[in-house]
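Task card 7
Instruction: Convert sequence to structure tokens.
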Amino acid sequence: MKIKIFSLRFKILAALSLLAGITFFLVTHLTIEHMKQLGKYSVDACSALGKSVVYDSKNALMDQSREELQSLVLSQAQLIDIQLKRVAGEMNLVANLCSRYMEAPQEKQDDLSIYFSKERPKDLNDRASYYLSGGVNPDAVNGELNCLGRLQPILKFVNSNNPGSHIIYLGTPSGIFISYPWTLQPAGYDPRLRVWYQNASKSHEAVWAGPYISSTDNKLVLTCAKAARNKEGKVIAVCAIDVEVRSILKSLISTQLEPEGKVFILDHEGDVLVRRELSETTGYSWDNEYKKENLLKSPDPGISAVARKMTEGNRGCADLAIPGEPVHFVAYYPIITTGWSIGISIPKKLIIAAALNTEQIIHRDVLKHSSFISNHIENSRIAYISLGFIVLLLILVAGAYLSAKITAPVLFLKKQAEEIGRGNLDLKIELKTGDELEHLADTFNRMTDDLKKYIASLEETIHSREKIERELAVSREIQASLLPPPWQEQVKGSADIDVRAMMEPAKEIGGNFYDYFMVNETVLFFCIGDVSSKGIPAALFMAMTKTLLAHEAECSLSPIKVLYNVNNVLEKDNDASLFATVFCGFLDTATGEVNFSNGGHNHPLICRKDGDFEFISAVNGIAIGPAPMKENVWQMETLQMNPGDRLFLYSDGISEALNEAGQAFGKEKLRAALNDCEESSSNEFITRIREEVRRYAGREPQADDIAMLYLSYYGTKANE
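Output:
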């Protein structure tokens, strides 16, 4: 074994490391010495500057931010108060109109489609929808629907007049639910059980409910509801409008000072009604109770103290220290109409970061000392450039020398490898460098020896493969000779039938087969089969199965006995557990009667005269060959063929043919292809079906054997 003194990698790394180390040492030494001077001066100046600026800027910004935050929360509270008043006023209007229409009903309309749409319209804004709770008789509430339908234009106007509105609707004590725009309510929905209906029924004023999950599309909403009453004060309907929490957030977020600021609204009990995180409703459902967050019950005393002031209707601004978060400024103000309160918080660190006064002071000091720093940097730049040229020159000289020493054996090895590539496998490379290049030369020498052995072996392998291919070609010809001709216009002189068939293996030879012949003067035996395996084993099993089927068909006209006897012969020495699916039948050309039995094969298709191809409904029997069976596992069925009828049998290589996307051709595409080709002559029919399957597969190779048999019956005796 040869000992490597120094590897090629070591040589290269040593040279580069030496140069890099020298360069780094020189540059670092100069940099450190110069930066020490700059650093000392800069630290002393900035330290004094920072102390004088931070104190003044912090106090000024604190005061300014508190004033701006209080002004912002005041404007938002007034804006929301105006919006809530408008929504409540519009619901009072809708409730009053509802009372008027219910007490002064118009002439009954038989067609409620002028108001409502039972089916989903193309434009949801064209119609309102109505939903009847469980147990409600439609005839009993038809009069109410006529009266309430007149509100549809009002609902449409109010909804479109509120950009943040999600849906406007009303419910009645009788179980009617009307909504605009058109919505699909979930099964089991009853408006009388919803909190907005129950709260409004107990009050003579407009009430607010929520937040909760809407039943229409699981959005988080707040609801303003107003009960419509008759002259006696009895509730005849509850009108309501949903305002999506997300829409309220959009109008608030746009006015925040910073993206990290937070906006929230509390009701008089301390429950959070609106907050950015509440717009996410993933995992919630309308029929489950939505759990509200109550800030009065917060474990943090600072949060609960601010929440208590807000629920008491106070206004102000406070510092709030939340565990795990920076200190926030929180400003809050009451919303008079509903008794709610709005709060806006901004992290204290963001306010301090915007210190304009600090920036001005620092800028003056930077100008004062810029002259010293500029001169020092210029001197350093000249020194660095001079040093860079010297180091670069050293690297170029050393690199040229090292590259010549290192690449010389590499070039020699390259020339020798090219000589080997031209076919000189007897060449031996002699290279003594004591590193990886010498080891590579030895590898080339071993490779040439291995190549000579491989070429000799390859020639022998090619000779053996050519011999196998010749034998397979002969086997394919023998297998094809076992099958009857692909077509016969008159089978043994019979003018009553026309048979076309084909078998195309996926490999050189395959396991699909077909057969047909006249058992006697009037009876035609036909069959099609598919062996479970492929290649040579399938071909041998196919030949045995076909021969046995033909023999049994000549001995018995019963398809059951044919399958039974063939199965019992095949299973005796079937150690490989091969099996074959078979469909066989006997056609009486005089009467058109077909007796058939299915041994687990694909169902054939029949085309009646002037009709389309349809699948035959046949009982699926057991495939033959794997085990001994009783005779009654197969059933004989009868099919009557009339003059002009056609029968199509196929193997699963057709229906399971895959395209480039991995999708199967399928039975429905097969049936459609047969119907498209039914006008073709018998000569073209099989060919067109095969071309259609090939066109569908595209570049995808054939994965399974394909067999088809097409039988046309021209008998003159019709079915009586």
